[in-house]
Amino acid sequence: MNLPATAATRTLTCRAVLFDMDGTLVDSTAVVEAVWGEFAVRYGLDFAEILRTSHGVQAGDTVRRFAPAGADVVALTAELGAMERVRTAGIVPLPGAAALLRNLPAEAVALVTSADRILADIRMDAAGLAMPATAVTADLVTRGKPHPEGYLTAAGLLGVEPEDAVVFEDAPAGIAAGVAAGIRTVAVGPKTGPLPAGVLHIPDYSAVAVSVETDPAGQRIISFQL
After folding, report:
1. Does the annotation count 139 as an active-site position?
2. Which of 20, 27, 116, 204 is catalytic?
3. pLDDT tier for residue 105 given thresholds of 50, 70 and 90
4. In the chain, is it the N or the C terminus that has fewer CB atoms within a 10 Å radius of its CB?
5. Angle, nearest 10°, between helix axes 29-43 and 73-85?
6. 3-class state of residue 28 by DSSP
7. Does residue 115 surpass a pLDDT of 50?
8. What is the sign of the dihedral through the CA atoms of 219, 104, 94 and 58?
9. Which letter does DSSP use for residue 115 in this model?
10. What DSSP assignment string belongs to 39-97?
11. What is the pTM of this model?
12. C-alpha angle with apex 213: 3 to 181, nearest 5 degrees?
């Protein structure tokens, strides 16, 4: 399936939908910034640079990049994870996210997140969102975003080709991953950075409409009006 002839219609059709979590379905900005701020102070790291580059990236990759020479990256990543798992105050769903998930066929939806499964469960629950049955978390991939492995894995688990899926993402690393996977990608929110050609943008899901139909061959068609 291809993008519509004119972007003015802002209509996408697909057979499966792949969502990032933090910043895309769940607003966890306050928690993430607080935890990374404390972590940066504790180990003398550049907090501003961490915030600039870490969004959408696996925590272990960020720790590896910024940790002092000779540091135990595995231990520091585990410490950071333990800090994140006990912080849920202020975590909320993005506007319209809950309604959108309810209106999508459960078997056509996957979560693809740089969080591990434990943290993903905690944050989705804190936001009052049901965890999709198909979830590709950090512990299930060998290469994190911006590598396309997570999104390609999710498409495969849902039984669709990349061109038959749509990705919703908020971070430059995740958007790059969706594009690299050959999946049409919709950027969400204010922190997307410059967008690659063909990537649409929405502020949130409050104005997004979705319908689900069946084509003559009996296959599901999901249509988004953005």
Report:
1. no
2. 20
3. very high
4. N
5. 140
6. coil
7. yes
8. negative
9. S
10. HHHHHT--HHHHHHHHTTS-HHHHHHHHSPTT--HHHHHHHHHHHHHT--TT-EEPTTH
11. 0.90
12. 35
